[in-house]
Amino acid sequence: MVGTNLKGETLSMISKRSVVEAEMNSIIDRLCQPGGPGISGNLVDSEGFPRSDIDIPAVRADRQRLSELRNDYTRITELINENIEVLHSARLAPTTPSVSRDPIYVVSAIYSVKKVLYTCDGEVSNMVVEERAYTDNAMEVDTLVKIPFAIVDEIADASPAADDGLQLGDHIVKFGKVEASVQNLLQSLASEAQSNQGRRLDIVVMRQGALVNLTVTPRSWHGRGLLGCHFRIL
Question: What is the DSSP string of 14-43?
Fold first, then answer.
C-alpha cells in the first residue's frame, strides 16, 4: 500500500514538474524572441541608458519568475529522485506472497527546458535531471538522462562547429572522452579538440530535451580556434 501511494505521489510530482517546465519554456521564448534581452542580457544601451525597445519592468518580472521556477524545478526533481530510490529499494527486497509485483514500472525523465535561441545569451540553468528506470524483470538501474556539463554560448558562421551541426544553446553531454565527471572541464575540452585535430570526434548534445549524436572534426579555418565556438561550463 505504501509503495502504491509513493508511486502515485511520484507520478503526481512528475506531472507537476511538467507544468513548471511549460511555464519556464514560455518565459524563455518570450525573453529570447528576436530583439529580446535574453535571460541575462543587458537592459541598458551602449550609452548606459535604459533600453527603449523593451519593457524593462516586464523583463525583470519574467527573470524573477524564471529564477523561482528553477528553484521549484530543482526541489521537485530532488523529491522525485528520493521517491524513486525508495521504490527501487523496495523492489530489491525479497518478494513475499503479500507483495504484489507490477509487470514493469518505469519512471522516465525528460529534460525539456528549451534550447536558447540565437538571440539569447545561453544562460538557461544547470538544472540537471538524472533519474533512473527500474524494471521487475531486470532490476537494473539505468541512467535515462545524461548530465550536461557545458553549453554552446557562442558559435561563428561557417565555422567547423556550425558546419558539422553544432548549434547555439546545445548542452554538451559528451565531447569525445570528456564527460561531466572529468576534472578541469574547460581545459579538457580544449585538449580533446587539439588532440583530435583533423579527426572525427563523436559528441552527444542535449537539444530541446532530446539527446543528439553528432560528429565534429576540429580543424583549422579562417577564424579562431579549431571549432569556432565557445563552451560555457555549467
Answer: HHHHHHHHHHHHHHHHHHTSTT--TTT--S
Distances (CA, A) of 165 to 140, 203, 230: 34, 11, 15
* Number of DSSP helices (H) and strands (E) in the chain, helices first: 4, 7
- Cell 513475499 locates to 96
What is the grid cell recorded at 99? 507483495
Count the residues in the chain: 234
**Cα gap 141→121, rounded to integer Å:** 36
Alpha-carbon distance of 49 to 225, in angstroms, equals: 35
Q: Where are the beta strands (DSSP E) in 64-137?
A: 132-133
Element of type H or E holding 68: helix 56-92
Plot region of 30 (φ>0 → left; ψ -120 to 50 → alpha; else → beta)? alpha
Packing angle, helices 56-92 and 2-31, rounded to 10: 160
Burial 145-170 (b: 16+ CB within 10 A, else e): bbbbbbbbbebbeebbbbebebbbbb
Cα–Cα distance, 10 to 194 (Å, whole number): 45
Q: Which three cell numbers stand for residue 186?
A: 574547460
Question: What's the average model confidence in pLDDT over 52-58?
Answer: 92
Instruction: Please name the residues in contact with 16: beta carbons below 8 A apart, sequence gap of 6 or more.
Output: 76
**9 three-state secondary structure:** helix
Dihedral sign of CA atoms 30, 35, 39, 42 in order:
negative
Look at residue 219 and tell me whether its pLDDT is greater than 70.
yes
User: pLDDT tier at 122 (50, 70, 90 boundaries)?
Assistant: very low
